Amino acid sequence: MSRVPWLVGGGAVAAYLWTRTRASNSPPAAIASPFEGRWVWPVQIWNSRRPVISDGFYSPRPGVPRHGGVDIMFQRLPSDTLKAGTSNGTKSFVMPDDIAVVAAADGVIWSAMKTARGHAVVIDHSPQKIATFYAHLDTLAVRTTARAESRQRVRAGEVIGTVGFSPLDGQKLKHLHFEVWLPNPTDAIDPEPLMAQWAYVSDPRAQLVARNGSLTYRPVGGSGAYPQWVRDLKGEAGVYLIRDLDTRELLYIGSSAGRLYDTLTRHFQQWRRWKGFWKGQYGEGHDPGLTYDRGAVEVAIRLTKPDDSLDEESRLISRLRPRDNLIGQPIEDEAVPF
User: Fold this and answer.
1) Which of 24, 137, 152, 166 could form a disulfide with 117 if both were Cys (CB 3.0 to 4.6 A apart)?
2) Neighbours of 75 (CB within 10 A)
3) Residue 102: closest CA among 177, 176, 144, 160
4) Of 13 and 249, which is predicted with more confidence?
5) Statement: residue 332 has pLDDT above 60
């Protein structure tokens, strides 16, 4: 994408970001007007507690004139059990495990990759000449890419990963390092004054679709641990719908009467097909052995009673006609009674 000319060389992005130097300690010029569109804090609310800046833009670093971004954690409370000196806390701040990192605004994923300092994401917020940078992620919920090759779009508040730590940090303290570039990485601005006006968002992964509710599709992440909303499906009954992340084409509908997590995640275990796991089974070519690149799809869930899951699956297949289901598809031109 030529709209982001300052990002050159996909694989070299991460190395460049961390070897650049800051030219000055002086504050940048004042921004004439607020950014356009919806902007949110890039870390979710946790237990009704809003994230805070634990380390600011001008915090000194050895050999570097300025921090270049802000670190985000949660203010420690007397009731917190996360111990100081561990990866989950200091004397003043804490960061639990599995905290969602979200896109600060609408945009296109310019890069998402593993670096020496953890996973890192850059989002291009064109047509505004703004990009945001998220570092030390433990897992990614977007597809790995460079130079926006995936063309994956995200919206403000959409999960892009989880908070982790830099492997190069001796304490391995969990926190999000966040930068705003206007317009170049070397022209990073202090985001703290702007963030005072940004909204806070709850964990989008916790918003499981209610029984018989409308369908909401969410990415499951290209690698690493599954999001919490997927793990919460263990022991549940219901229906899952898998669709292409880019084209929004509905690919597959399945169900489970009590093992929804296992049944769904089986479709992302591509090693099963590579090793001939499905060979000789009735579903070898189609149901139920289809596997998908988990980074290229998104999933919707509808919870049901165990006895209702199969009927709901049949109803949705007949009504929505997913691409890859063979069993349950209506005859061509057959009226669907729903």
Assistant:
1) 166
2) 13
3) 160
4) 249
5) no
